[in-house]
Amino acid sequence: MKYTEYDTIDFLSDEFFIQWVKNPDKNTRHFWEKWVQQHPEKRDMVLEAASIIRSVRYANSPELSDEMYVDVFETIVKAGNQSCRKESKSWFTFYPLKNIAAIFLFGFCGWMVHFHMIVGVQPVIPAETEEITVLRTVPPGKRSIITLADSSRVFLNSGSEMEYPKAFSQGDRWVRLKGEAFFEVKKNGFSFSVFAKNTEIKVLGTSFNVKEENEDLSIALVSGKVQVNDQKGNQVRLNPAEMLAIKEDGKFSKTSFDSLEVTGWKDRILVFRSASFREVKRKIENWYGVEVSSNGKVSREWKYSGIYKEETLENVLRGIFITSGMQYHIENRKVTLYDPK
Amino acid sequence: MKPEKKENLSPTNLVLTQNQKESLLKFENKTDEEVWTAFDRGNELAFNYIYRIHVKSMFRYGSQITCDTGLIQDCVQNIFIQLRDKRGGLNTVHHIKGYLFKSLQREIIRKLKKDSKLGKDGLDQNETYFPVTLSHETVLIHQEKDEEFRQKVKTALNELTARQRQAILLLYEEGMSYREIAEAMEFSEVKSARKIIYRALATLKCILKK
Q1: In what order do the strands lie in the sheet with A291-294?
Q2: 3-class SS at A121?
Q3: Which of A12, B61, B151, B195 has a CA between 20 and 30 Å from the CA of residue B21?
């Protein structure tokens, strides 16, 4: 049967389709995005099937606590050690197993040394030591790259602020953000949380953009997986190429996004996509740390699109003038724009 | 406000974390069969990797059958202890997750039966296993009618048999292939996994059209 003859139920049971919805990769994305474009009449059906697939969840999903995770591991490994002692004869006759015993012994010695050197010298690190945090603020017109203790990288956009622990204690990676940042989180087996507004964005190892503007928050996922928990207890998971927008009143919506427009700033690319005058003004103010005002009225219909990589303010303004006719005047850190029409 | 946290600097934890970083690097791009063979040969990093990748989802999977977390913990422990005991003579495993899920389900059912919390027929008898819920995902597409639709699908899903729900959850929530589902649910043929999903979806459609 061809995909064009598919009914919702056929999509719902198609492995290739489910793969695209659950774990999209280059292949599936290329195929299904093209296919949907060519068969717009099937779009609603595809979206419905995809949303059902994504929303089916276990009704109970308790998380295994970190404590239990370690306990279970310990029990398993120790049980193995015991049987090793009991059956020592048969163990050592079997060649590879002898090695394992040696590794265990070696590991144990190593651990003893480690334990006595570190834990012995500074006996007990109190569990509730005050964590030293660092606060970084980036003024308008500047951008900054921060490497965290776990070697995750954060691009901090102009006019933003981030607080983070100087060193991450075991399994506790977090930062608090005001403004906009792009995260490249390194996987290390523990989750990484970004707190922005009243929302927690929880990830393992991924790259994504978080932007807080006025009272709204948006999260755009480039790769990996993120889970967003808001203060009302709502939980949304994002797939790559999806963006979640949370409005001031807590309403949220998911869309796709233009990755250059959303994340271009971290590569020093300034992007306008049919931007309104207000948007252009705000972007330039933030990007160059200047004040922009307009002289006279600008038509509501006025829109501007353009891409600039590491350009000076003057060049950007000249570019805007050439394509849209908007005149400019720069004096000190003040820019005046006016539409001669 | 700082996120709640717990310091856990036990020696096991230190060793565990160190090994995990290494095991991740080494096995991340290997196939399940390769990882399993390394484990069988006694490679501790391979064990570490398997534990790390699967223990959380095993625990969650077990929670669909019983809410007794202590019992699930025991079962998970037993499975790994037994596997480690048998190293050097383990059978080939193509899908580790499916295999572990199957073992866990067996172990839990066995334990429940032993504690006589269960009739003889095990899983098929208990229709409360594998309850399904629908996340707010649908909200985003069917703006207004959404809540109503969501409730309808949720009710319909929970009217399916426990086996059907199990298959659907493995397919959608766990993202398993039909082959892996066949392994996890102990079907001898992949065809049977396809069949159970198709039948479940057909029933779902019927209920929704009512």
Answers
A1: A291-294, A334-338, A327-331
A2: helix
A3: B61
Partner residue opposite A103 with nearest CB, options B12, B44, B63: B44
Tell me: the pLDDT tens digits for A251-273?
888 888 888 888 888 888 888 88
Q: Is residue B6 part of a domain?
A: no
For A172, name the nearest residue in chain B, comparing CA atoms only.
B5
pLDDT (0 to 100) of residue B14: 54
Among the partner residues B8, B150, B169, nearest to A67 by beta-carbon distance: B8
ipTM: 0.83
Residues B34 and B119 in one domain: yes
> Do B108 and B136 reside in the same domain of the chain?
no
Token pair of B11 as six digits: 């020696």
CB-CB neighbors (< 8 A) of A128 in chain B? 7
For the segment A156-187, what is each residue's pLDDT rounded down to a tens digit? 998 899 998 888 876 778 899 999 999 999 88
What are A17-54's pLDDT values in tens digits? 998 888 888 888 888 888 888 888 888 888 888 888 88
Ordered DSSP codes for A50-75: HHHHHHEEES--PPPPHHHHHHHHHH
- All domains of chain A in start order, with CATH: 3-55 (no CATH), 66-121 (no CATH), 133-258 (2.60.120.1440), 268-338 (3.55.50.30)
